[in-house]
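Hi! If you just cloned this repository, the fastest way to understand the data is to look at a raw example. We've pasted two of them here, unedited. The first protein comes first, obviously.
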Amino acid sequence: MHFAYPPRKSSNPPPFRPRSTQLPLPRRSRLKTIALVFLGFVGALYLLFGSRKPGPYHERVPSGSPSVVLVTVVDPTTWNNAYLSTIKENREKYAERHGYEAMIVKAYDYDTRGAPQSWAKIMAMRHAVSKYPDCKFIWYLDQDAYIMDPTKSLEEHVLEPKKLESLMIKDYPVVPPDSIIKTFTHLRGQDADFIVSQDKEGLVHKSVIVRNGAWAKYFVETWFDPLYRTYNFQKAERHALEHIVQWHPTILSKLALVPQREFAAYSEPDLGDSYQDGDFVVMFEGCTELGPDSCETESSHYWPKWREAFGLK
């Protein structure tokens, strides 16, 4: 019996080719995607938790000492010095009673750079923020006004958050009578950084309260912007203020509008809410330097009253 021989191998076998170790292209693409997603996830974790190191800039948080700086700009070049001395005494006695700081400065101490000297009030506010970096609030009150009730601290009268929120006029035209820009409806008392009132014509810029901090610096610098100082607004810094609160949401979002009689009642009713006995402040809006309508004449009706309220002879 014959058996078939197996086929003889060729004496010239094909060259050896090692098996490829590369993955198929689709699989390699998937692995690359997974690796990129993993690296992105790790990077996000690092940014969230691993890189929280103190930066070079830290916003100063005022300690609240003094709690309020009461700022008034006087102009002895055009106003009677006897009248201005009563203004100075009024501010200093009130501040002394409540542990505030009274900052009475002269208008000509500031260079308004060609703008009307009334712009000095904004420069004085900026000066107060620099001079008293730890104060909590700046209250600017113009020279044509008296504080009439010394028993009321600014905190209990306006600034305490719940009290302020109860006073705030919400969803109301910022500039009367029909501005389409209205005060915010959801602003809380503790979040308000700028407190102001209205008269019949617009915002009462001669009695305003600003909370010290980063926002206050932004607000003051915006109000004093060279563009507004050179724009030749009809009522200078007042119209500039009304412009920025309507066109800058960052300012409007911090604005608390309160009734005028809270800290800006007028001695005459023609332009706004008139002063009544027991009100906190009386302002002599529209008073003149000389004549029967002078500030000195108008204030003379209130000078004995506030001195009596302060316990002064």
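Ok, and the second one:
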Amino acid sequence: MALGYVFGVIYTSKFKAEARRKILLTYGWLSIVLFIIIRSTNLYGDTRLWDTQASGINLLLSFINVSKYPPSLLYILLTIGPALLLLAFLENAKGVFWNKILVYGKVSMFYYILHIYVIHTLAMLAASLTGFGADAMVLDTWVYMSPRLQGYGFSLSFVYLLWIVIVVATYPICRWYGAYKQKNQRYWWLSYV
């Protein structure tokens, strides 16, 4: 998040589009190269070490299997690098699809908070409907660590489908909030949500 504020400066009037693109490409590729160099040593950057595997795809998966919680240096490099490259390549993207995506980008913190509550509410409902009980889904327990939730879960295809449904279902709320932010710019704190 701190890097987001730092990189936000390059989207001000001080930077022209070509200079911004060059900065994004430079730091994006630098992050990826640093990830590869540091990860290949297996000495620093993450508690999970990679190991040789029977197949190339398994080797790749072992190599990129880094810790998200807490975020390791390698996790940050692996996620920030491609994100910066995407920003560089998609800045001038046009069309209906990209306009819809921009709605989420303009209210990203709002969407993040909203989706956490929506997903948690749905998880509590699903736990109740499948006989595990909503109280098993307390906020301070990881689902995979709770002995009360052994056997709880859904297929990956169902999870992806639900993810798409949630993104689409929250679109009108995000669009409304974006319009609200635009009309009420006198409230400075809205820019953070």
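That's it. A detail worth noticing about the second one: Residues 128 and 134 are 5 Å apart (CA to CA).
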